[in-house]
Structures are given as C-alpha cells and as structure tokens.
Write a structure and sequence with these properties.
By secondary structure, this protein is α/β, with parallel strands linked by helices. It is built from 16 helices and 16 strands.
C-alpha cells in the first residue's frame, strides 16, 4: 500500500484555503506516485488549534463542509483520506498536532518505534507543522516498522513522503540536528509564521548593542530577509560608545539596507521629560525611588520611539526580553517588556548565548560572515540606564540564576529542595522573592514563542495576589 505522509503548514480558521491546499497535494501524490492513502495532521482543515472559533456554530458548519469536500475530492482520485487516528490494511495511523518543546521530536520518534514493535504493524504518524501565534508545531512526521526501521520527515517545514508498506524498506529520513539546531529552527519558523499569518510584511527591532537584541535581529533577518527588517538604535547619555559601534557592525553584517536603520539618541528627550517632571521627582519618597523612576523613563522613551517606527512603517515590533529577565522582573513595564511577539521570551540567558554562538558557527561553516560580533558575545550585560550599570548589580550571575530558575520553574521544586542540592540559601531565597514578585509584569508580557514546555503565562501561571512562598 502506497501511503503519503503530508506534513502541511495550515492556518487557523482558513478552512477554504486549507482545503484547497490539501486537495492540491492529494492530486499531486496520486498523480506522481500513485498514492492510495493520504494522511494529514490532526484538524488539518481547521488549522488547529481552534481556540474560540470552535464555539461558533457557523464555523463548525463551514469546517464540516470543507472536510466533506476534501473527502469527496480524494475519493474521485481513488485515494483514501486519513484525518484521524485509526487502522487500515494492517497499518496504524496517528494524526497529531504536537507542539514543540525541548526533546519533543525525539520523544515522538521513540514513541513511534515502541508502538510499531508492540503492535507488530507499521505505524504512520503525521504531525502538523507551522506556528500559530506562540505555539510551534514541529512536524517531524514519520513511519516505523516492527523490525525497528524508522524514517522521519524534516522538522519545521512542509514535507511529503510516499512510502510503500509492501516494499519493507523505508526511505532515508531527515537529519534533525541537536537541541540548539532544533531551537533555532523553531524560533525562525515562529517569527516567519507570525508575520505571514497576521498579514504583516515587516518587523522592527530596537538594537541596544547587547546579546538579546542581537539574537532577535539575527533570527528576524533569517526568517524574513534583511529587506523586511528595520532597526533603530536609541543610545542614552549612559550608553557606551561600543554599544552603538557593535550595533552598527551587526547591522552591516546581516545586510540591513540603507534607510532601514536609524540612530536616534534619547538624551535630549529624557532631559526634557525629566525637567518637566521635576515637581514629581523631587517629591519622591527617597533617592532610590527617584533613581528607579528616571531609569524606567528612559526605557519607556525607547519604547515610544520604537513604536513610532513601528506605526509609521507598518513594521511589527519584536520584543527582545529573555526568560531569565521575565522570571525575576528585570525589565520595565511598558518599556522593554513591550512588543507584539517575544521572540526569545522562553529562552534563559544562557540559552541566548549558546544559540547565538551556534548561529555564528553555522554561518562560518557555510562560508558566511558570523552575524553577531564577538564583542557582543563577550561583554558584560547592561541595561545602560545609569553610569556603569551592569545586570550583575541587580541579579546573581546568570549561570547561577538560570540553574536555580530551571529548578524552580521547570522542575517545580521548592526553595528548600533547591538549597538541599547545594545552592547558597540566601541566593535561592532572593531568586524566589524575585520570581514571585514579578508576576504582575508577566501577566502583561507579549506572547512568547513556546519552546521550554513550561512557558510563563501558559504552562506556568501564578496568581498575582498569591502568598509569596515557594
């Protein structure tokens, strides 16, 4: 039996467009390969997940009519259509819509093999591919034989494979790469599909000269092409000279066209705002509070200017905050926590560095210039909102912070359990306080591309008014 595994990137709610694309692929595999069965991912016609669309009786009627249309189209071409789990001709079929998280593709491959060995029958598993808002469906469909043979389709892209179960031999499968390669592919797909499926052509990124904005810019350029990305540099009086120089070097390396990058110092705007607010600032409850207010004013001025770029050019603003910062509330509400999509919002700081280095390595292996300048990768992180400021002034060093956060967030451990593993008790208690005190900010963050399996606002939600105990 010739079976076509069809891994398609469909759009939520576009039942007419999805059905048309399905029909076109059915016709192709039937005509070119003589496919007798065509298998799609779960809810391919509706573009899963439905979210609120499923509550509409009219939409459900339209979806049912579209499914019937695709089924009739397949029958006319002598093809059996498989849209749900089942068995046919001694083959088990599974139609899935599994979203990406670290390790998920490997787990699906191992599950496929186990099921084939258990049942003694070939197992065909087809997974959806494509990003829907913050959720990334990774594809990686495949077929496994009871003998232990397995063949998998590529990750993060549309693909079709036709296998003959009677031949007893499977085609060579795709190479998936390691954890960082998969993370890279997921984020590029997430950015590309967010814009494509919202109908927005261009994106914009505020470049600080730091590693977070550098990684987001690199991913945006890869996903969309340099001609569809705009950027603005917004140095303050506290910014170092190398912040602008590093940003300009990266902009040159990734090929942002002339006229798509701007340098807009914020010192004058900040001074004017501070002068206008003197009656308020002078009455602050203490100098620390006044200093915090002035720092946050700069972050919000930067947001205002980045959004002016976004609005005037129709370019969607990409947020550049990472998960370590979001976890401990290290960010300015309505400032650097803003944006339409948090590209790296589910990556800890250590992952940001590791992925940035991997992107550079892959570029050099392909004979291209590494997009992220080495100085951006090696200099100390800083928000540059006061003289000589560094992130380490306010936080534990990132390697320590990250391993504690992973235990608290992904691991669900208590502070006592983390301390029992050998971590400094005072540091753990401090991280716990910061984690629980930042919930009011996290409730207002843009959607983050989900990769960890424990994303803030989705798998990990905590009431703002909850008792602050971990």
């Amino acid at each position: 039996m010739k079976i076509a595994l069809i891994q398609q990137n469909n759009k939520v709610g576009d039942v007419t467009g999805n059905a048309a694309r399905m029909q076109a692929e059915i016709a192709r595999v039937a005509g070119e390969y003589g496919a007798e069965v065509a298998v799609f991912g779960a809810d391919a016609v509706t573009g899963t997940p439905l979210l609120g669309l499923g509550d509409s009786a009219l939409f459900r009627e339209r979806a049912a009519a579209a499914v019937a249309e695709v089924e009739a189209f397949a029958r006319e071409r002598g093809v059996r259509l498989v849209l749900a789990d089942g068995e046919c001709g001694g083959v088990d079929f599974c139609c899935a819509a599994d979203h990406f998280r670290h390790g998920a593709p490997t787990e699906s491959r191992e599950r496929l093999l186990r099921e084939a060995r258990r049942s003694g029958r070939p197992v065909v598993w087809v997974n959806a591919v494509g990003a829907q808002t913050d959720t990334i469906y990774y594809g990686g469909s495949g077929v496994a034989l009871p003998s232990g043979e397995v063949s998998m389709l590529p990750l993060f892209e549309e693909a079709t494979a036709v296998i003959d179960t009677e031949a007893g031999v499977l085609p060579e499968g795709a190479v998936w790469g390691d954890r960082l390669d998969q993370l890279h592919g997921a984020l590029v797909l997430g950015v590309r599909d967010y814009l494509a499926k919202t109908g927005v052509r261009e994106a914009c990124v505020a470049m600080s000269g730091g590693i977070d904005s550098a990684l987001v810019l690199a991913l945006a350029v890869e996903a969309l092409g340099a001609e569809r990305v705009k950027t603005v540099m917004l140095p303050s009086q506290y910014s170092t000279d190398h912040s602008v120089a590093d940003s300009e070097e990266m902009i040159r390396r990734v090929g942002i066209p002339a006229g798509h990058a701007w340098l807009v110092p914020i010192a004058g705007t900040f001074d004017a705002a501070r002068a206008a607010l003197q009656p308020v600032l002078q009455s602050a409850r203490d100098e620390k509070s006044r200093g915090l207010a002035e720092e946050n004013m700069q972050a919000r001025i930067r947001l205002m200017m980045t959004m002016a770029l976004s609005n005037s050019h129709g370019a969607l603003m990409l947020n550049t905050s990472n998960k370590s910062e979001a976890a401990v509330g290290y960010g300015t509400l309505y400032g650097d926590t803003s944006g339409a999509l948090a590209v790296i919002g589910d990556l800890y700081k250590g992952e940001v560095y590791a992925l940035s280095r991997r992107i550079n390595e892959r570029a050099e292996e392909q004979g291209r210039v590494a997009p992220i300048p080495e100085h951006i990768l090696t200099k100390a992180p800083s928000a540059e909102l006061r003289p000589g400021q560094q992130d380490s002034d306010s936080l534990p060093d990132y390697p320590t912070l990250d391993v504690i956060l992973v235990r608290l967030v992904e691991g669900g451990m208590s502070s006592a359990e983390v301390v029992a593993e050998g971590f400094d008790a005072a540091t753990v208690e401090r991280v716990c306080r910061l984690l629980l005190g930042g919930d009011f900010k996290r409730y207002q963050l843009p959607p983050a591309l989900r990769v960890s399996g424990c994303t803030f606002g989705v798998e990990r939600r905590w009431p703002i008014t909850a008792t602050k105990v971990l």
